[in-house]
Amino acid sequence: MEQTFLMVKPDGVQRNLIGEIVGRLENKGYQLVGAKLMTIPTELAEQHYGEHKERPFFGELVEFITSGPVFAMVWEGENVISTSRLMMGATNPKESAPGTVRGDFAVTVGKNIIHGSDSLESAEREIALFFNKEELVAYAKDA
Ligand code: CMP
Predict the structure, then answer these.
(1) Where are the Phosphoserine residues found in this chain (predicted)?
(2) I need a labelling partner for 20 at 20 to 30 A (CA). Which of 9, 11, 40, 113 fits?
(3) Has residue 52 been placed in a domain?
Protein backbone atom coordinates (compact mmCIF):
# COMPACT_ATOMS: atom_id res chain seq x y z
CA MET A 1 0.00 0.00 0.00
CA GLU A 2 1.25 3.51 -0.84
CA GLN A 3 2.83 5.55 1.97
CA THR A 4 3.77 9.21 2.29
CA PHE A 5 5.69 11.43 4.67
CA LEU A 6 3.77 14.36 6.14
CA MET A 7 5.00 16.80 8.74
CA VAL A 8 3.24 19.47 10.78
CA LYS A 9 5.81 22.28 10.75
CA PRO A 10 6.80 24.35 13.83
CA ASP A 11 4.10 26.96 13.10
CA GLY A 12 1.40 24.27 12.94
CA VAL A 13 2.57 22.69 16.21
CA GLN A 14 2.70 26.08 18.01
CA ARG A 15 -0.82 26.83 16.78
CA ASN A 16 -2.13 23.50 18.15
CA LEU A 17 -3.09 22.23 14.69
CA ILE A 18 -1.80 18.63 15.06
CA GLY A 19 -5.23 17.27 16.01
CA GLU A 20 -6.99 19.19 13.23
CA ILE A 21 -4.58 17.86 10.59
CA VAL A 22 -4.55 14.27 11.89
CA GLY A 23 -8.36 14.40 12.06
CA ARG A 24 -8.70 15.49 8.44
CA LEU A 25 -6.54 12.61 7.21
CA GLU A 26 -8.29 10.07 9.46
CA ASN A 27 -11.71 11.28 8.32
CA LYS A 28 -10.63 10.95 4.71
CA GLY A 29 -9.84 7.28 5.34
CA TYR A 30 -6.06 7.18 5.59
CA GLN A 31 -4.16 5.34 8.31
CA LEU A 32 -1.42 6.79 10.48
CA VAL A 33 1.36 4.18 10.57
CA GLY A 34 4.12 6.23 12.21
CA ALA A 35 4.38 9.48 14.15
CA LYS A 36 6.76 11.42 16.36
CA LEU A 37 7.03 14.83 17.94
CA MET A 38 10.63 15.96 17.50
CA THR A 39 12.96 18.90 17.05
CA ILE A 40 14.84 18.40 13.79
CA PRO A 41 18.65 18.59 13.99
CA THR A 42 20.17 21.03 11.43
CA GLU A 43 21.92 18.22 9.53
CA LEU A 44 18.65 16.31 9.03
CA ALA A 45 16.88 19.51 7.92
CA GLU A 46 19.60 20.15 5.33
CA GLN A 47 19.27 16.58 4.03
CA HIS A 48 15.48 16.73 3.96
CA TYR A 49 15.46 20.00 2.01
CA GLY A 50 18.60 19.12 -0.05
CA GLU A 51 16.84 19.81 -3.37
CA HIS A 52 16.40 23.47 -2.33
CA LYS A 53 20.08 23.97 -1.41
CA GLU A 54 20.71 26.55 -4.13
CA ARG A 55 17.51 28.54 -3.48
CA PRO A 56 17.90 31.98 -1.86
CA PHE A 57 15.51 30.96 0.95
CA PHE A 58 17.39 27.75 1.88
CA GLY A 59 18.97 29.23 5.05
CA GLU A 60 15.65 30.64 6.17
CA LEU A 61 13.92 27.32 5.46
CA VAL A 62 16.39 25.29 7.54
CA GLU A 63 16.31 27.87 10.34
CA PHE A 64 12.52 27.76 10.47
CA ILE A 65 12.07 23.99 10.33
CA THR A 66 14.60 23.54 13.19
CA SER A 67 13.14 26.41 15.27
CA GLY A 68 10.73 24.27 17.31
CA PRO A 69 9.08 20.86 17.46
CA VAL A 70 7.53 19.31 14.36
CA PHE A 71 5.11 16.37 14.18
CA ALA A 72 6.53 13.89 11.66
CA MET A 73 4.13 11.28 10.29
CA VAL A 74 3.84 8.40 7.86
CA TRP A 75 0.37 7.92 6.35
CA GLU A 76 -0.81 4.99 4.31
CA GLY A 77 -3.62 4.43 1.79
CA GLU A 78 -4.67 4.46 -1.84
CA ASN A 79 -3.13 7.40 -3.74
CA VAL A 80 -2.13 8.95 -0.40
CA ILE A 81 0.80 10.89 -1.92
CA SER A 82 -1.23 12.91 -4.42
CA THR A 83 -4.47 13.08 -2.41
CA SER A 84 -2.78 14.33 0.77
CA ARG A 85 -1.12 17.05 -1.33
CA LEU A 86 -4.53 18.10 -2.60
CA MET A 87 -5.72 18.21 1.02
CA MET A 88 -2.67 20.35 1.97
CA GLY A 89 -3.28 22.88 -0.80
CA ALA A 90 -0.81 24.84 -2.92
CA THR A 91 2.61 25.57 -1.36
CA ASN A 92 1.95 29.29 -1.43
CA PRO A 93 -1.08 30.00 0.80
CA LYS A 94 -1.91 32.90 -1.55
CA GLU A 95 -2.97 30.22 -4.04
CA SER A 96 -4.23 27.44 -1.77
CA ALA A 97 -7.98 26.88 -1.94
CA PRO A 98 -10.30 27.23 1.05
CA GLY A 99 -10.96 23.77 2.47
CA THR A 100 -7.30 22.82 2.22
CA VAL A 101 -4.98 22.94 5.25
CA ARG A 102 -2.94 25.84 3.89
CA GLY A 103 -6.02 27.54 2.45
CA ASP A 104 -7.68 27.46 5.85
CA PHE A 105 -4.76 28.11 8.20
CA ALA A 106 -1.78 29.77 6.46
CA VAL A 107 -0.91 33.17 5.05
CA THR A 108 2.78 33.10 4.05
CA VAL A 109 4.83 30.64 1.96
CA GLY A 110 7.53 30.23 4.62
CA LYS A 111 5.11 29.41 7.43
CA ASN A 112 2.75 27.14 5.55
CA ILE A 113 1.88 24.68 8.37
CA ILE A 114 2.53 21.35 6.68
CA HIS A 115 4.98 19.49 4.44
CA GLY A 116 4.13 16.49 2.28
CA SER A 117 6.17 14.34 -0.10
CA ASP A 118 5.62 15.28 -3.76
CA SER A 119 6.34 11.89 -5.41
CA LEU A 120 6.84 8.21 -4.66
CA GLU A 121 10.59 8.75 -4.80
CA SER A 122 10.49 11.65 -2.29
CA ALA A 123 8.11 9.72 -0.04
CA GLU A 124 10.52 6.77 0.16
CA ARG A 125 13.49 9.06 0.73
CA GLU A 126 11.79 11.21 3.38
CA ILE A 127 10.25 8.27 5.28
CA ALA A 128 13.69 6.64 5.47
CA LEU A 129 15.27 9.90 6.68
CA PHE A 130 12.83 10.29 9.58
CA PHE A 131 11.79 6.75 10.56
CA ASN A 132 13.31 3.32 11.15
CA LYS A 133 11.27 0.42 9.80
CA GLU A 134 10.56 -0.73 13.40
CA GLU A 135 8.83 2.59 14.13
CA LEU A 136 6.11 1.91 11.53
CA VAL A 137 3.10 -0.25 12.37
CA ALA A 138 0.80 -2.43 10.27
CA TYR A 139 -2.98 -2.31 10.79
CA ALA A 140 -5.10 -5.43 11.05
CA LYS A 141 -6.65 -6.07 7.62
CA ASP A 142 -10.24 -6.14 8.88
CA ALA A 143 -9.92 -3.14 11.24
P1 CMP B 1 7.58 22.50 1.66
O2 CMP B 1 6.51 21.73 1.02
O3 CMP B 1 7.98 22.12 3.05
O4 CMP B 1 8.89 22.39 0.73
C5 CMP B 1 9.81 23.44 0.59
C6 CMP B 1 9.41 24.65 1.34
O7 CMP B 1 10.09 25.83 0.98
C8 CMP B 1 7.98 24.97 1.06
O9 CMP B 1 7.16 24.03 1.68
C10 CMP B 1 7.85 26.40 1.59
O11 CMP B 1 7.47 26.42 2.95
C12 CMP B 1 9.28 26.90 1.46
N13 CMP B 1 9.38 28.00 0.51
C14 CMP B 1 9.05 27.98 -0.79
N15 CMP B 1 9.27 29.20 -1.32
C16 CMP B 1 9.74 29.99 -0.32
C17 CMP B 1 10.13 31.35 -0.24
N18 CMP B 1 10.10 32.15 -1.31
N19 CMP B 1 10.55 31.82 0.96
C20 CMP B 1 10.58 31.01 2.05
N21 CMP B 1 10.23 29.70 2.02
C22 CMP B 1 9.80 29.21 0.85
Answers:
(1) 122
(2) 40
(3) no
Please answer whether residues 91 and 85 qualify as being in contact, where contact means their C-beta atoms are separated by less than 8 angstroms.
Answer: no
Distance CA 64, CA 70 (A): 11
Beta strands per DSSP E along the chain:
3-8, 31-38, 70-76, 114-116
52 noted as active-site residue: no
Q: Is the dihedral of CA 61, 106, 118, 136 positive or negative?
A: positive
Q: According to the annotation, is 85 in a ligand binding site?
A: yes
The number of C-alpha atoms within 13 Å of 1 and in the hemisphere containing its C-beta is: 14
Sign of CA dihedral 13, 14, 19, 21: negative
CA 23 to centroid of ligand 1, rounded, Å: 24
CATH number reported for the structural domain that contains residue 121 in this entry? 3.30.70.141
Q: Using one digit for the tens of pLDDT, what is the confidence trace for 20-37? A: 999 999 999 999 999 999
Residue 60 lies in a domain: no
